[in-house]
Design a protein that fits this description.
Elements: E1 3-8, H1 12-23, E2 28-34, H2 37-47, E3 51-54, H3 63-73, E4 78-82, H4 86-98, E5 102-105, H5 108-112, H6 118-131, E6 154-156, E7 170-172, H7 199-209, E8 225-230, H8 234-242, E9 253-257, H9 261-274, E10 278-281, E11 292-295, E12 300-305, E13 312-317, H10 328-339, E14 343-347, H11 356-364, E15 368-372, H12 382-388, E16 394-396, H13 398-409
Parallel strand pairs: 1-2, 1-3, 3-4, 4-5, 8-9, 8-14, 9-11, 10-11, 14-15, 15-16
Antiparallel strand pairs: 6-7, 12-13
């Protein structure tokens, strides 16, 4: 059965061209075309499409409001088409929080061309979202700006299906002594704190997760760095994980999310504003420190040079032969050379197989690897590739990943 698609754009040129591109694939049936958000809501209600492509800036009702209205009635994968500007990136990320499943740049030259890859990319994204079966993720609730002057309470015990930090019912805080700085990073200064016992927290996590065998090394084999790679559906999945980590998380974190250049700075800023940990777009020459996540810049490649004790970020132009910029494989591979097996890697929702070879390099050194499970993925591509290759030690739903990290690493 063909994938039923509703196209939404206020520009008659773009609307017509998007419809033409989608109709060029026999696996897709365009069931309607709307010229504003209000029409989109009405047509989505009537036509019940499998996937919707959505513009952002439109008269009568903008794309963000339309996404919010549509997904509140009947969750459906929405692909946002966004301009490559900082403002466009910010609006797109807001749309993702409202319920959109994915986004792609809206370039005139790509959509106008009859021979380029822009049209193929649009078709591929639509089909990938349709194969996801249903829109699985519950959006994280908006979080207040964190006060990093002290560690925020940790949250554990998720309600079924929710990815929000607030969904974890039981709370406690970690003692400062349990967060010794890894030897290879510059220790982040932490103010003195008074914390209750960790025993109640460990008990709560165990009760929620059940008795799952530890997959992360302990003692001398404990990881010194956390890696997370994601693509389609990744922004919301990353937010679900990172907003649940404490300010004094003991490891540095490297994030690789498939995004264009204009988007990663805005994404890092948004995460930094709602997370307890620090999040920023990576820059060449930076060192690593606990409780800080560095996001690979869009359109570039992020590598880690040096050794465990002297590691520094290197940001380089991407070789044309690499499909993904940034590439999970390249970043993970470089970390395997710098840290050996003292790494814990996680591959989240995403289309394709980026991350599989990077995880293979890490596993050969003795690292631990988790993959997101199929049921909570927007697109079960990258995690499936890792799991099918026998490289995933465990697979978890998105709402269980942060509690497991807290239990095993904190």
């Amino acid at each position: 059965m063909a994938v039923r698609v509703l196209a939404v754009d206020d520009s008659s040129f773009f609307r017509k061209r998007i419809v033409e591109i989608l109709k060029s694939d026999k696996a897709i049936e365009v069931v309607g075309a709307a010229e504003n958000g209000r029409q989109a809501v009405e047509m989505a209600r009537k036509l019940k499409p499998d996937v919707i492509t959505m513009d952002i800036e439109m008269p009568e009702m903008d794309g963000i409001s339309a996404v919010r209205a549509i997904c509140s009635e009947r969750p459906v994968p929405v692909l946002m088409l966004s301009s490559l500007t900082h403002e466009g990136a910010t609006a797109t990320l807001t749309a993702m929080e409202a319920g959109a499943a994915d986004f792609m740049p809206k370039r005139f030259e790509d959509l106008a061309s009859r021979t380029g890859n822009g049209g193929k990319g649009l078709v591929a994204r639509v089909l990938a979202l349709a194969r996801g079966g249903r829109y699985r993720l519950t959006r994280p609730a908006a979080a207040p700006v964190p006060d990093r002057s002290s560690a925020r309470p940790l949250t554990t015990g998720a309600a079924s299906g929710s990815t929000s930090a607030s969904a974890f019912a039981r709370t406690t805080s970690k003692p400062q002594t349990s967060f010794a700085s890894p030897s290879q990073v510059t220790a982040a200064s932490q103010p003195a704190r008074s914390h209750p016992s960790v025993a109640s927290h460990a008990s709560a996590v165990s009760a929620h997760l059940g008795r799952v065998k530890n997959t992360i090394g302990r003692g001398n084999d404990a990881p010194k760095i956390l890696l997370i790679g994601a693509s389609t559906g990744g922004p919301v999945a990353l937010q679900a994980v990172l907003t649940s980590l404490p300010a004094n998380f003991p490891l540095p974190i490297l994030l690789v999310q498939h995004m264009p250049a204009a988007f990663t700075k805005a994404f890092a800023e948004r995460l930094d504003g709602i997370c307890n940990i620090s999040v920023k777009e990576a820059q060449g020459g930076e060192t690593l420190r606990p409780g800080q996540a560095l996001l690979a810049p869009g359109g570039m490649q992020m590598l880690l040079d040096g050794s465990e004790r002297s590691a520094r970020i290197r940001v380089i132009e991407s070789d044309p032969s690499f499909t993904y910029k940034p590439s999970v494989d390249l970043t993970f591979g470089s970390v395997s050379r710098a840290f050996g097996g003292l790494v814990h890697a996680i591959v989240l929702t995403g289309m394709g197989a980026d991350g599989r070879e990077g995880c293979r390099a890490l596993k050969q050194k003795g690292a631990s690897v988790w993959a997101q499970d199929e049921a909570s993925c927007v697109v079960y591509g990258m995690p499936q590739a890792v799991a099918a290759a026998g490289l995933a030690d465990q697979q978890f739903s998105i709402e269980k990943i942060a509690p497991r990290l807290i239990e095993e690493l904190c």
